[in-house]
Design a protein that fits this description.
heterodimer; A: 371 residues; alpha/beta; eight-stranded mixed sheet; four-stranded antiparallel sheet; 13 helices; 32% helix; 21% strand; B: alpha/beta
Chain lengths: 371, 389
């Protein structure tokens, strides 16, 4: 067993978390650099995460947005060292407070996982163990990471259940996951994840399976716990409303790559990448009745057979000849990155002209679905 | 695309529907007002819970739908919202007689359908179709697209293989799929494409009424809008009437002409879409709307957070079913009446029905006060102990 000293009665944070404690002030808490996680399947290599970089600052919430298959969950799994065969991190660094998690041994990463970084999953029914009581699932993490004894960890479990707003926590701790509603199960997951007072919480679609009124409860709960524990959250979701409400910074992913990255107001108000614009325009919004929704035509490209050049090219309304060359992720304004050839003001670059009709048509014909 | 100004109002009522299959609805439009296509009267569906030593003693019932009445007007889209377990899907299935009702009646074009014999029911079914939520579970993986879409026409007497294939190709084109995909199997398609196959199947018999049960909730955002626009276009072109069941309030607002809100097996509010979203007259509707996250980072709204979970439909609370979680009741000092008298659906404004005793008390000021009260009295979390700092 490696790791810090154990046996303290009151769990207190033993890992560095705030810049004052850490000494160096401008280093982000978590920094992902050029991460590539590939899956080597029988049919070929799936580049689920392909050169992704982002950082998570102390006490901030980073929203990671994208549609299914864009690699957002795999990126989270990579951070926690949960990628298993046929998947493999083939390149990149994941620096937690300067320490590269990719290089850690299985034992060492275990001490990070669930302790410094916790995760809550989308499906509370499948990620809680059905044969353990809710209390046991929480005390397991507590005794593993904080080294508390049986009674102390059981008490800690009840205390955590109270903290996440479960009424009659003592009784609930003795119940099994199937005896709880979806919202309650999600609270149990959050309680388990937060029982070790992690510095970082990775929440993968934490409210997607829940009803709106329960989603509202969970979001309020996460906000309150975030403020109280000063933790950083990496929030993975496809729900732009949830991101707008929770996040400080946003990363938009498409087909394994980051296509846009900035603070939340910039992304929502001045999106640069056509995909981000398309996403924002295609969702119906409460209180704004449009006759017709804009669509992003076509479908996400097959991950086994990605097109050359810009991955969004075939669905892009502003595709240009230059898009046959893959654009780099470039800074278009301070703190605002976009992977698109359009100029910062949204104009086609001087070298290229508007997309020739035959390119657009060929692309449309290739896709069976049209808008 | 088609019909720029036609909006959401659908084809003119009574306009002849274009033909897809060479059948015209049997002239069964006997009785019933012409505006009313489907009338649901005091519909009840209870699922029995059996238990006991041999597992066959009746020990209770899940009251999934518990006395719901409304009508769907010809050419409109009626949205039905509510949280999981409120009975909205069950309601849709009972209306189509896919599961038998416990009591009540459904009239289609004025004709009661629950007592129809199987032959008569078959002919009614041509005109009432359904699109399911899960595009993965609702298509038979061993059938080709042609077989899936062509099955209904075959059952209804279109025996010529060539004619069936022509029809299926026409339908595929209509829903935006490539006609050459007719011999492919469902697994070869993406979620959005599968949902289009499901829609083509529902259209195959040239129905007048389609129940759309969460048709876009399993799809990615960029695909959702494609399918919503398709449903819109088809309504314009074919003069369809939709019962659109969904839990996403923004989607329902977008597509519906009128909206019904369900809670624990009851319809608690029914009104035209603009009315219900701007002047909701039931505290549950208010809370639902307030719970939706705003897609605007500058408007991080405070909201009414309902306490607790939806009670079990096997043991719904007495009186008003919402009273155990109602913010309005709390504001009014917990009047007894809510816990004893079940409120009936009543008209509070023209065409706006609500099932709340105190609907008149719902004013913008009251809502704001409730939001403020909620955000001050920090929800029922244990007192924050200074854990780290």
């Amino acid at each position: 067993m490696s790791g810090p000293a154990r046996g303290v009665a009151v769990p207190e944070r033993r890992h560095a978390r705030r810049s004052t404690e850490r000494g160096s002030t401008d280093r982000p808490l978590l920094e992902v650099k050029n991460l590539r996680t590939h899956f080597f399947t029988q049919d070929g290599v799936v580049k689920a995460v392909d050169g992704v970089s982002f950082s998570l600052d102390d006490g901030k919430t980073l929203g990671v947005v994208g549609e299914s298959g864009c690699g957002k969950s795999v990126a989270a799994m990579s951070i926690l060292g949960l990628v298993s065969r046929p998947g493999k991190i083939v390149e990149g660094e994941i620096l937690l407070d300067g320490r590269d998690l990719v290089q850690l041994s299985e034992d060492d990463i275990r001490d990070v996982r669930g302790h410094t970084i916790s995760m809550i999953f989308q499906e509370p029914m499948t990620s809680l163990n059905p044969v353990y009581t809710c209390g046991d699932q929480i005390s397991e993490a507590v005794s593993r990471h904080l080294g508390l004894g049986r009674r102390a960890s059981a008490e800690r479990a009840i205390e955590m259940l109270q903290q996440v707003g479960i009424p009659d926590a003592k009784r609930r701790a003795g119940e099994y996951p199937h005896q709880l509603s979806g919202g309650m199960r999600q609270r149990v997951m959050i309680a388990a994840a937060l029982s070790t007072t992690p510095a970082i919480l990775i929440a993968d679609e934490p409210t997607t399976a829940l009803d709106v009124t329960i989603q509202a409860q969970i979001l309020e709960l996460m906000k309150e716990l975030r403020a109280r524990n000063q933790m950083s959250i990496m929030l993975i979701t496809h729900d732009l409303g949830v991101v707008a409400e929770m996040a400080d910074d946003v990363v938009v992913m498409y087909a394994g790559k980051v296509v846009e990255q900035s603070d939340v107001t910039t992304v929502f108000e001045q999106p640069h990448h056509p995909y981000t614009k398309g996403l924002l325009n295609s969702i119906p919004r409460l209180g704004e009745r449009l006759k017709r929704l804009e669509v992003i035509r076509g479908v996400v490209p097959n991950p086994l057979n990605l097109p050359a050049g810009c991955l969004f090219r075939r669905r892009c309304p502003t595709a240009m000849p230059i898009c046959e060359t893959a654009p780099p992720l470039q800074e278009i304004k301070p703190g605002h990155l976009s992977r698109c050839w359009l100029t910062p003001s949204g104009e086609p670059p001087a070298v290229g002209t508007a997309a020739p009709a035959d390119v657009a048509e060929a692309a449309a014909a290739e896709l069976s679905v049209e808008a | 695309m088609i019909g720029q100004d036609a909006g959401l109002s659908g084809g003119a009522p009574g306009a002849p529907r274009p033909e897809l299959l060479g059948h015209q609805a049997a002239d069964g439009a006997a009785g019933g007002s012409s505006a009313e296509l489907v009338a649901v009267e005091d519909l009840v569906k209870h699922f029995e819970i059996r238990g006991g030593l041999l597992g066959n003693r009746l020990i209770g019932a899940v009251r999934a739908v518990d006395g719901v009445s409304f009508s769907v007007r010809r050419g409109e889209t009626l949205g039905l919202v509510g949280e999981s377990g409120c009975g909205k899907t069950t309601l849709g299935k009972v209306i189509l007689r896919l599961i038998p009702a416990t009591s009540g009646e459904v009239r289609f074009r004025g004709q009661p359908i629950f007592n129809l014999g199987s032959r008569e029911m078959t002919s009614v079914r041509r005109d009432m179709q359904i699109v399911f939520q899960d595009p993965y579970g609702s298509l038979n993986p061993r059938m080709t697209v042609g077989e899936i879409v062509g099955e209904g026409p075959y059952v209804h007497g279109l025996r010529s293989k060539q004619e069936r294939e022509d029809l299926v190709r026409e339908l595929l084109a209509r829903v935006g799929l490539n006609q050459s995909h007719i011999h492919r199997y469902p697994h070869e398609f993406s979620g959005g494409q599968r949902q289009r196959i499901g829609i083509a199947r529902a259209l195959a018999l040239n129905p007048e009424f389609i129940v759309c049960d969460e048709p876009v909730s399993a799809l990615d955002v960029s695909i959702q809008s494609q399918v919503l626009n398709l449903l819109d276009d088809l309504q314009q072109e074919l003069g369809l009437t939709y019962l659109f069941i969904a839990h996403n309030l923004a989607v329902v607002e977008h597509i519906s002409d009128r909206v019904g809100v369900m809670y624990l097996g009851k319809l608690v509010e029914l009104a035209p879409v603009d009315t219900i979203y701007q002047q909701p007259a039931h505290p549950y509707t208010v809370a639902l709307l307030s719970a939706v996250p705003e897609v605007n980072p500058r408007k991080r709204k405070k909201r009414i957070v309902l306490k607790g979970d939806v009670p079990s439909p096997a043991a719904p609370p007495p009186g008003c079913r919402f009273h155990t979680r109602c913010w309005l009741r709390e504001r009014l000092g917990n009047p007894e009446r809510c816990a004893t008298d079940e409120p009936a659906l009543r008209e509070i404004r023209p065409d706006q029905m609500t099932a709340c005793h105190y609907a008149e008390e719902i004013t913008p000021a009251a809502i704001e006060a409730a939001v403020d009260a909620g955000s001050k009295a920090s929800p029922p979390f244990a007192p924050a102990e200074p854990r780290v700092s």
